[in-house]
């Protein structure tokens, strides 16, 4: 039993079968990549993990709890954090505030009216957030407004926002999409560091360079179906994968 | 940190605010605004705008129906006068609570939508309250005449404490001090200061940070484990309570409640006050409320004769022409001036008067400190 178990998940959009009997088992402390051509159902699958979509049939169980029918904020409170394809941050707030908010969410739950205590007195949360910003090399910008950051920096900030919650499972939806090469490499290094700390990650990715330098296991999705699942070296050589995903080209 | 748990600069702001408000009659004297009736309005609408800013300035939810809570507050206060006591304290407590209770209901329903749909829902609720006050609720609101005091009112608490006002209609009084004129102003001013302090604490609290996060990115909030709707509702109810309090104070200074207080123009006015002063800033809404009430007072007092006198230096034909053109903008037409002023602010100073002050401060700093300051304030990294 892994930390996240997906059993026979099906999802239809009208006539399109987006997910067809998907089974997955994500083990604690591993980096699990989900790859596949455009339209294979990768994002749909991820959305089923976070409460954005509900599968038509099948089960998604995280750490002993079924995730079906639970709203996103409750799933996060269970220990699942998510990084978006386009970084989702609080653009009007400072970097420090951006990281303090998830820390407060972790500490105080999904709703708390503490309108009488000053943020300035919350040194514990502030320190936590500053350490996190240092980890992603953004500490020097802690007082800047997050909306002005570069794409790469926004991604690092978003990762810091997720990590400050010490998630049991971190979901990443194409974390390097639309990034310059230098930013991509920085982000890979950062994700490697995170993985080395034992954070369980599920990564959806197009970039093979990213996938093979990061993943412990890879699942290949094609037309809503998992056609292969193995360690990276085996996946590279799997003829079915090359056929479906890589169009027969040799890696 | 000090006992008020405010940072140094906030403490200075608060002290300056208290001094400015309490010495309002002296400071505003040269501007022709140093008389109690107008000062009371500054304080009351300041409270209204401070509350509105907690909703609009922090969470970004633009309510077009806050006058409903103002009206509810006024009716509640007058009813408290009639049934319990002419003392303003129970009146404002009930006005605040009932304003809050109404905003729980309206907020709960309206917050199922965001953006323009939310604004329209709040507007619809307020207009509904306004029309109800004129029609089926006449037994409670006394319809077009407005709710007034009567000699035959029970005033249970006053009777119990042996307070007898005799054959005259009593003004509201705080343990014997009549709430008209300067005492009335200082009563409102005290509450304005308390409300400003509360607003300051909320702004600087983790709760305030969450409200700003609601405005910034609700999607991220949800995926960060935060439930956005109760946060928005809490802000809505707090602002509804401030509006109820302001409505109660209107009744305290003049014990009469009419439905026109709930009309959409009144809701629009508090939006203008907040934006004019600078939404999302601490002081902006108070300044905006003061500015609008001040100009309303100045411009609506103008009439044909004053205008003709003002243009008396011109040849007669020109004098009459100028006077008739200007008269469009004053008196009854002062809303035209307000509209023009508002457009200018929104176009040239989107951050309101507070942004104007900041710019002036920045310019002074640049002249004083050379190029150093300007280069620091303009390092916005490219996208």
What does this structure look like?
The complex is a heterodimer of chains A (251) and B (383). With 251 residues, chain A is α/β, with parallel strands linked by helices. Chain A has one domain: Rossmann fold (3-Layer(aba) Sandwich), CATH 3.40.50. Chain A has 9 helices and 10 strands. Chain A has helices at 42-49, 72-78, 95-108, 123-135, 151-163, 181-196, 208-214, 232-237, 239-244; strands at residues 4-13, 16-26, 31-35, 57-62, 65-66, 80-83, 169-173, 200-204, 217-222, 225-230. In chain A, helix 3 (95-108) packs across helix 4 (123-135), helix 3 (95-108) packs parallel to helix 5 (151-163) and helix 5 (151-163) runs parallel beside helix 6. The model of chain A has no long low-confidence stretch (mean pLDDT 89). Helices cover 70% and strands 2% of the residues of chain B. Chain B folds into 2 domains: 8-279, ABC transporter involved in vitamin B12 uptake, BtuC; 302-373, no CATH class. Chain B has 383 residues and is mainly α. The radius of gyration of chain B is 23 Å and the shape is globular. In chain B, helix 14 packs antiparallel against helix 17 (334-348). Classes of the chains: A alpha/beta (251), B mainly alpha (383).
Short account of what is shown:
The complex is a heterodimer of chains A (about 250) and B (about 375). Chain A is an alpha/beta fold.
Keywords:
heterodimer; A: alpha/beta; Rossmann fold; four-stranded antiparallel beta sheet; 9 helices; 10 strands; 24% strand; B: 383 residues; mainly alpha; two-stranded antiparallel ribbon; globular; disordered C terminus
């Amino acid at each position: 039993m892994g930390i996240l178990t997906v059993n026979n998940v099906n999802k239809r959009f009208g006539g399109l079968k987006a997910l067809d009997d998907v089974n997955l088992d994500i083990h604690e402390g591993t980096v699990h990549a989900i790859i596949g051509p455009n339209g294979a159902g990768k994002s749909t699958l991820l959305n089923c993990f976070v409460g954005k979509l509900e599968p038509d049939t099948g089960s998604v169980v995280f750490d002993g709890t079924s995730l079906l029918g639970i709203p996103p904020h409750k799933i996060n409170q269970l220990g699942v954090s998510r990084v978006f394809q386009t970084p989702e941050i609080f653009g009007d707030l400072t970097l420090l505030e951006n990281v303090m908010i998830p820390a407060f969410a972790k500490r105080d739950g999904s709703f708390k009216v503490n309108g009488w205590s000053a943020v300035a007195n919350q040194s514990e949360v502030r320190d936590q957030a500053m350490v996190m910003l240092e980890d992603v090399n953004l500490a020097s910008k802690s007082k800047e407004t997050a909306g002005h950051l570069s794409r790469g920096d926004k991604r690092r900030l978003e990762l810091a926002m997720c990590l400050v919650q010490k998630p049991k499972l971190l979901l990443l939806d194409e974390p390097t999409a639309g990034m310059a090469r230098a930013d991509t490499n920085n982000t890979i290094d950062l994700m490697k560091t995170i993985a080395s700390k034992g954070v369980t990650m599920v990564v959806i990715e197009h970039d093979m360079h990213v996938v093979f330098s990061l993943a412990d296991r890879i699942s290949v999705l094609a037309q809503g179906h998992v056609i292969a699942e193995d360690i990276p070296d085996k996946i590279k050589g799997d003829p079915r994968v090359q056929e479906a995903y890589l169009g027969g080209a040799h890696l | 940190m000090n006992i008020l748990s405010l940072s140094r600069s906030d403490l200075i702001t608060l002290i300056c605010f208290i001094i400015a408000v309490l010495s309002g009659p002296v400071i505003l004297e040269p501007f022709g605004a140093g008389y109690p009736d107008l000062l009371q309005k500054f304080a009351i609408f300041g409270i209204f705008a401070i509350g509105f800013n907690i909703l609009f300035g922090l969470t970004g939810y633009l309510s077009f129906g806050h006058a409903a809570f103002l009206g509810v507050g006024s009716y509640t206060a007058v009813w408290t006068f009639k049934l319990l006591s002419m003392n303003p304290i129970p009146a404002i407590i009930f006005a605040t609570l009932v304003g809050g209770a109404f905003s729980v209901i309206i907020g709960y329903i309206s917050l199922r939508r965001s953006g323009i749909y939310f604004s329209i829902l709040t507007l619809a609720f307020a207009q509904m309250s306004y029309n109800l006050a004129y029609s089926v609720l006449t037994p409670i609101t006394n319809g077009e005449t407005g709710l007034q005091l009567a000699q035959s009112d029970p005033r249970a608490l006053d009777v119990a404490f042996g307070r007898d006002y005799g054959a005259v209609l009593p003004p509201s009084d705080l343990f014997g001090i009549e709430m008209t004129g300067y005492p009335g102003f200082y009563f409102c001013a005290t509450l304005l200061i308390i409300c400003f302090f509360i607003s300051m604490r909320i702004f600087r609290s983790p709760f305030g940070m969450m409200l700003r996060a609601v405005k910034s990115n609700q999607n991220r909030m949800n995926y960060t484990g935060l439930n956005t709707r109760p946060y928005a509702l809490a802000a809505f109810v707090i602002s509804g309570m401030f509006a109820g309090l302001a409505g109660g104070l209107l009744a305290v200074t003049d014990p009469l409640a009419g439905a026109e207080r709930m009309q959409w123009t009144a809701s629009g006015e508090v939006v203008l006050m907040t934006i004019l002063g600078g939404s999302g800033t601490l002081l902006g809404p108070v300044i905006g409320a003061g500015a609008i009430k001040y100009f309303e007072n100045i411009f609506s007092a103008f009439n044909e004769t004053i205008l003709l006198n003002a243009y008396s230096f011109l040849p007669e034909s020109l004098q009459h022409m100028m006077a008739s053109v200007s008269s469009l903008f004053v008196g009854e037409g002062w809303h035209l001036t307000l509209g023009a002023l508002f457009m200018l602010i929104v176009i040239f100073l989107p951050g309101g008067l507070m942004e104007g002050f900041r710019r002036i401060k920045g310019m002074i700093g640049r002249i004083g400190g050379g190029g150093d300051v300007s280069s620091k304030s303009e390092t916005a990294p490219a996208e």
